[in-house]
Amino acid sequence: VREEIPHEESKELEVPIHTQPTSSVREQMKRIVGELLSERGLSVTAINNYLSCPWKYFYNNLLTIPQTQKKHQIYGTAVHAALHDVVMKVQKEGIQKDDALYAVAQFQKHLRKKPLTQQEYEELAKRGEKALSGYIQKTEEQWTFPAFTEFKITDVFITPEVMLRGVIDRMELVSDIGRVRVIDYKTGKHKSRADIEGKTKSSSGDIYRQLIFYKLLLDAQQDKKYYMETGVIDFVEPNEKGDIRREEFQIEESEISILKDTIRTIIGEIKELAFWDTRCDDAECEFCALRNMITEV
To answer: SS3 for 72?
Structure first.
């Protein structure tokens, strides 16, 4: 999953932040937060962050405070970039014998641009070579479909003021009447189907929510050019047996309806600062810790 954040539109808060805002300050805060929400819109990452911890959303997605990428995030970004390059190449040239080698070379090129030590680079380069070469070779038949890569959607409004935005990793055209298969790449350890759907104790359902969100976006596009037939979670890296896994889902209209209600509730809570005195369940949450540093002035 990708997300565009318009950094050039970032604003600094114009009023002091109180632990318990007075009525006048609260109204000013509501105005500023509302303006930022309208500018940023909501991506599925922002929604998942809010559901995980409203303060994670507040700092990461609303204020867009810059953060240093962690090693696993750098790896995932480079893998996504390499797969984007492969899709572009295949769409122009068709499937070639060197596609796997090309994917690895592109991955290494993107990785070299990242702030890594030599040891970290070598570690990730080896991991990426194994993953991408295996993934491309074992999924070759899937690359024959006409496809879009990093397909951006930014024209969907869930309310008159708040836009929904998203970037689909890969979208395959499976019919000549606009039916598509939406594919989201995942690096790291494979998850069970139940875990993806949020049906296990340790799962939040964030991954499945991404697929529902993409169908919501495609269904709501003004030109209605594409219809999402299925959504796919593609695990790029092999499991312990060396196998590549994918899980494919058909999204129900009832699931889209539930997500719309959730998004509208989130928008209402953000606009009303309903989250101001809340904290998430994670005692080690860095974002709640930042919130706790805000004192009255």
So the answer is: helix
